[in-house]
Amino acid sequence: MEANEHLSAGATVAELLAWAFQQLSAGESPKTDARLLLAHCLDQSSTYLMTWPDKIVETSIQTQFQQLVMQRKMGHPVAHLIGTRYFWTLSLEVTPDTLIPRPETELLVEQALQLPIGPNAKVLDLGTGTGAIALSLAYEKPTWQVIGVDIVDDAVALAKRNAIANQLPDVKFLQSSWFTHLSAKTFDLIVSNPPYVESDSQYLSQGDVRFEPITALTAGKDGLDDIKIIIEQSLAHLKKGGWLMIEHGYNQATELATLFTQYKYTNIFHKKDLNNQPRITAAQKP
Ligand SMILES: C[S@@+](CC[C@H](N)C(=O)[O-])C[C@H]1O[C@@H](n2cnc3c(N)ncnc32)[C@H](O)[C@@H]1O
Predict the structure, then answer these.
(1) Distance CA 190, CA 243 (A)
(2) Atom of ligand 1 nearest to the CA of 229
(3) Where exactly are the structural domains of the chain?
């Protein structure tokens, strides 16, 4: 990597950003990426970059920034390079152990908060990853008892760190393959953003997903293997009248409705994302 190519030491904030925009111009969001990376290296907000464009950046920080820009140019997700992603109201640590939380998953949080569920609800987040959904729900509903599980030990450790960092120490996280370590616990609400990508999907060779674990993404040929398990096994872990809400692919809503019907759930409904695609399906245990 030739980090200093075409840019001498002692560059200003504006010069570094201009250099980075050019380096990243083939990407989807060169300006946002460059600003996030420079703000991270300077340990400042994006506002600082706009307020101090003529500030000369220390050589060591310039070198660090240029190296990160070159890694971004090679495709590494910005969230992995800076170690953080904002989700809902929270700042979450992210690592390559699990999925980087996506803005579309905020739709699931939004919809879960609108369900008719009492103040002392017991809530389970299946495949919690960074803890994004569990922690957002606990932040909004401090009286809910929220548990998140993940099959990956390092993801569970990450979610626990995120709980502490976001002052939500009451949210519990444990390692479990779906319900295996949950014994006979029952819940008022089960939420999940499980792996749901088809194993041969072209999407897997594009963008950030190339750097995320396959265990967080794919679920068999039609992407429904984990969703089938969750819909079937949730029945034994939901209270009467309890809700199951699942995020899924834009082309999977009909299959989810069929599965929910097959297992005799009621009040099945879908919610669409900003692109008008159904991405959430929920239903109630009768
Ligand atoms: C699509 S990611 C979602 C992560 C997080 N909930 C989010 O929305 O950002 C799916 C998560 O499910 C976890 N997972 C995969 N198989 C699992 C299983 N059998 N039991 C529990 N978790 C599983 C993965 O490790 C991953 O963290």
Answers:
(1) 6
(2) 19
(3) 13-74, 84-284
Domain 84-284 top-level CATH class: alpha beta
Contacts 24+ apart (CB under 8 A), 163-169: 163/131, 163/135, 165/91, 165/93, 166/90, 166/91, 166/92, 166/135, 166/139, 168/135, 168/138, 168/139
126-139 tens-digit pLDDT: 999 999 999 999 99
Cα separation, 266 vs 247, in Å, equals: 18
pTM (2 d.p.) = 0.94
Q: For helices 30-42 and 13-23, what crossing angle results, to 10°?
A: 140
Q: Contact at 8 Å (CB) between 98 and 148?
A: no
pLDDT for the residue 185: 86
CATH of domain 13-74: 1.10.8.10
Which mutation among 85, 92, 98, 146 tests ligand 1's pocket best, with the greatest number of atoms within 8 A of CB?
98
String of DSSP letters for 161-185: HHHHHTT-TT-EEEE-STTTTSTT-
Question: How far is it, in rounded angstroms, from Cα 133 to Cα 130?
Answer: 8
Q: Give φ, ψ of 254 to 5 degrees.
A: -65, -45
Residues 88-134: tens digit of each pLDDT? 999 999 999 999 999 999 999 999 999 999 999 999 999 999 999 99
The pLDDT score that the predictor gives to residue 183 is: 83
**What is the position in ligand 1's atom list of the atom closest to the CA of 105?**
8
